[in-house]
Amino acid sequence: MTRNRLIGAVAIAFGALTLWSGGMVLFGPDAARVAAGRFVPFVLWFNFLSGAVYIAAGIGIFQGRRFGKMLASALAVALAVLFASFLVSIAGGQEWELRTMVALVIRFAFWFLAAWACVTTRPENRSVQS
Q: Which DSSP state fits 55?
């Protein structure tokens, strides 16, 4: 269960940072957009909106709830689809930044490993003694 608490806490922090960084580029000053470089709009919007889901999944994982496992798995699948879509768009000539590729790999790896860890964690034996 300690592993799930750590994963949950990291997921919550990851979600908060995702909301903050994506929000800065989408809604912040022009300097933030310029600093982001050649961002891919659909990737940016997906990442920003998924930040709230990261937090929800993190809370569920931290609490050992089933919905946390389900969200972690869904995020891993959604990020795999996003990554494939990103690759198709850059193959079609979309300008992009290397950091976008790196961030997608990190996000996918985290959520894949989080989902795997949640699925392979055995529930604690909570037998009641009389």
A: H
